[in-house]
Specification:
- The protein has a six-stranded antiparallel β-barrel.
- The chain has one domain: Thrombin, subunit H.
- By secondary structure, it is mainly β.
- The protein is built from one helix and seven strands; from the N terminus they run βββββββα.
- The protein is about 15% helix and about 40% strand.
- The longest helix is centred in the C-terminal third of the chain and has 17 residues.
- A hairpin with a 7-residue loop joins strand 5 and strand 6.
- It starts with 9 loop residues before the first strand and ends in a 10-residue tail after the last helix.
Amino acid sequence: MQDRRQAARYVISFPIRVRWRDENGQSVTEEGLTENVGLQGTLVYLPRKLPNVGTKVELTVVENPNDEVSVSAEVIRLERNAAHPQVALNLLEGMRAWKKKVWELAGETISGQEPDDGDDW
């Protein structure tokens, strides 16, 4: 299968908050971490409850409490691993703010890191 991504995806952990309505219409809020950040989506780790595929969510990156970034997204895939549940999200709205404040920050953060020394184990 060919990878259809048109931009870099950065493996980085930013703290996040995800809000959605469950099948009963009840508001659900979960906190977690990004696993990777792409230009049009992200994979996030949510330790407890996962939204269903197709659910619209509000994703807020809370890395900088004075400048939180909120976007609308849709759940496109779930990884129901009991030890590490993940949700793949495709962004729907707020992409300009996401690009500037999340995706570009991820790229800058990754490029500024020293490579791991593979011989230390």
